[in-house]
Amino acid sequence: MENSKALRTWLDDMNLPHPLVIAGPCSAETEDQVLQIAHELKDTDVNYYRAGIWKPRTRPGNFEGVGAIGLKWLQKVKEETGLKTAIEVANKTHVDLALEHDIDMLWIGARSTVSPFIVQDIADALKGTDKIVLVKNPVNPDLSLWLGAVERLHSANIKKLGVIHRGFSTYEKTKYRNIPEWQLAIELQTRFPDLPLINDPSHITGKRDMILDVSQTALDLNFDGLMIETHCDPDNAWSDAAQQVTPKRLVQIMEDLRIRKETDTEAEFKSQLSNLRAQIDIIDNQLIETLGKRMKISDSIGEIKKQRNVAVLQTNRWNSILGKMILEGESRGLSEEFVLRMFKAIHQESINHQEKIINS
């Protein structure tokens, strides 16, 4: 994207003393519910009030949103609280209705980002708008698809652009609802540092008690803001109850977050160091998770060896692994000594797992 520096202007113009905060219920349920939450958020750090009007559900039969009537409720939110409003749009009709009701911020959801046809239709409907338009990452970890959606909007002469990182779907069972794959967001940030980057810890975690930790990681990685689902009665929310927090809890989260400002050289140094350390923490967690998966496979190998009465140590296999890993390590700047020490430790742990199974 040419002239990407202009994309940050809308955020810089806000001159916020804290990260951008977009908050509100996953779904607009009733007029009273929408207004109650808004009034509880109006004197907090929240800059934009979000609410799901149309809810794309994975399977039919679930609550799919109140529809256009919810836009009138958001107009009342703006009138009564002064909060700017934000909704998700998935087609031209949504866009036209959102513009008609003067919604301030629009975002394209993860399920829509996967389709260039949908994104192009939305871009055409928004052509030349002065509204802020954000693009959530696609469901699967595809950076090109994510950036392609932004480029389509940029080509439609939409100047106020940004992206939302909400994590990626996976078949594997993890502690996250959607695994963060932080490295993709980091790569996007590296390639387009002037593209505002918002984190959505609600959809990444799927659990309200993890939102603070994920939000802190995002800020340590220099994200520009947070989108956090907020409900006055989360346990009885009509959608995504487990990941929503009360307005009171949101205020506490914002107070507990360590927000680092780059006001001088020392602060900039600390911010850069914190960013790099946060990246290392992410990779370290991935290493532990990967090693855990490796040992589970070793357990399965131990079961097979036990059934066949085969010795745990297979020397030829071990020597073959070492040779390949030494060469692979050298190609990535790792010394032979380090690779040997690391894989000997991994191999010994694998042997311990298999011997425990065979001798059980």
Labels describing this entry:
single chain, eight-stranded parallel β-barrel, alpha/beta, chorismate mutase, CM_dom_sf, Chorismate Mutase Domain, subunit A, TIM Barrel, transferase activity, 360 residues
Walkthrough of the structure:
The chain has 360 residues and is α/β, with parallel strands linked by helices. The chain folds into two domains: 4-259, Aldolase class I (TIM Barrel, Alpha-Beta Barrel); 267-358, Chorismate Mutase Domain, subunit A (Up-down Bundle), CATH 1.20.59.10. It is built from 14 helices and eight strands. Helix 6 (116-126) packs parallel to helix 7 (143-155) and helix 12 (265-308) packs across helix 14. The N and C termini lie far apart (60 Å). GO terms for molecular function: chorismate mutase activity; transferase activity. Pfam families: CM_2, DAHP_synth_1. It comes from Poritiphilus flavus.
Quick structural overview:
Helix content is 52%, strand content 10%. The protein is of the alpha/beta class. Strands 1-2-3-4-5-6-7-8 form an eight-stranded parallel β-barrel, surrounded by five helices.
Overall average residue pLDDT: 91
Biggest sheet strand line-up: 1-2-3-4-5-6-7-8
Number of separate strands: 8
Number of separate structural domains: 2
- CA-atom Rg in angstroms: 24 Å
Shape, principal axes of CA atoms: elongated
SS content category: alpha/beta
Low-confidence stretches: none
